[in-house]
Amino acid sequence: MSKLGNLGARLHRGEISYDFVGKRKIWYGISILITITAIVGLAVRGLNMGIEFEGGAVFTTPTKMSASVAQAEEYANKASGHQAIVQKLGNGSLRIQIAGIDTGQSDRIKQELAKDLNLDPEKLAADLVGPSWGEQIANKAWEGLAIFMVLVVIYLAIAFEWRMAIAALVALIHDITITTGIYALVGFEVTPGTVIGLLTILGYSLYDTVVVFDSLKEQTKDLTKQTRFTYSEIANRSINGTLVRSINTTVVALLPVAGLLFIGGGFLGAGTLNDISLSLFVGLAAGAYSSIFIATPLVADLKEREPAMKNLTKRVLAKRAQAAAGEDLAEVRATDGDDGDDGAPAVVGPRNQPARGRGRGRTSGKRR
């Protein structure tokens, strides 16, 4: 931990750095590849929408069932003719979800399930869910997402500048696309919890981005009055200066989410945690990546197009070329001074002056 702290301090002081901005084309290429993969996954496989969005029935068995999850899923598929989702709850009961059925089908399926599971039909709880409720949730979520993005763009444009607002918006769209694409590829069920998790990650993603933007804003004050650094170099210093902070906050946020996803949803079998934990896990990781590798390099790209920044870059490069030429000339002169074959070596040290003293050059003797 002390080594990590020392590394963070050295990054903050600019003693060491990694050229994130200079290698931005690599990061852009990686992001484009991941985004295309996510879009293809959405187009080919689509999202596995939950029963709240498609409508259907949910059957809940009593506790201490002898049938396994696989057996219950086989019975439900045979009885309904649809793909059923079976989850084992914490109290030992089974939750059977069957989408796309109406009331009449629900009563028939309930009787067949009770027979196959050796249960009294009255002990098998059945709840019908209409698709209109899930549709209302989805519509409200899209409205909230649109309002959120508009407010974010307005705030960042006022607090920082419009280029940073555009970069942050691109980063948010990048995170949402990757998260939904992962859902399509993995096949996890999309529930209202997924929507909540998707909206939650936007705040985390924006937090890391704003931290870097704030550092960049402070370091670029009166930037055109100096000739030591270009805008891209200052942007790179801002990323390096906040890098350890971004990593720490992301890791701390990912640890409990990973516990929900891999331990709660995977090891313990609490499948109901998967819908929200996967969106949070993927979104947090994508948000940390986009704030470092996408948002700030994109700001540098947009900023370097300004005439003032172009002139600054020319002046910085000209000064460096002049300094390099001066160093080369000094090195040549030093080399020529050490070589005695081409001529007499340069005289080093003070010249020998004729000694002067009082009375020299005068005729000795007393004045007459």
Please provide a written account of the structure.
- It is built from twelve helices and six strands.
- The chain has 368 residues and is α+β, with helices and mostly antiparallel strands.
- The longest helix is centred in the last third of the chain and has 32 residues, at 307-338.
- Residues 340-353 and 355-368 have low confidence and may be disordered.
Shape: elongated
Structural class: alpha+beta
Beta-strand segment tally: 6
Strand content: 5-15%
Biggest sheet, open or closed, and with what strands and sense? 4 strands, antiparallel
Unreliable residue stretches: 340-353, 355-368
Describe the protein's topology.
Blueprint: H1 2-13, H2 24-44, E1 48-49, H3 51-54, E2 56-60, H4 69-80, E3 84-88, E4 94-99, H5 103-116, E5 125-129, H6 131-159, H7 162-186, E6 189-190, H8 192-219, H9 231-241, H10 243-267, H11 274-303, H12 307-338
Parallel strand pairs: 1-6
Antiparallel strand pairs: 2-4, 2-5, 3-4
Helix pairs in contact: 1-9, 2-7, 2-11, 4-5, 6-7, 6-8, 7-8, 7-11, 8-9, 8-11, 9-11, 10-11
Relevant terms:
two-stranded parallel ribbon, about 5% strand, about 375 residues, four-stranded antiparallel β-sheet, alpha+beta, 6 strands, single chain
Concise synopsis of the structure shown:
The chain has 368 residues and is of the alpha+beta class. The protein has helices spanning 2-13, 24-44, 51-54, 69-80, 103-116, 131-159, 162-186, 192-219, 231-241, 243-267, 274-303, 307-338; strands at residues 48-49, 56-60, 84-88, 94-99, 125-129, 189-190.
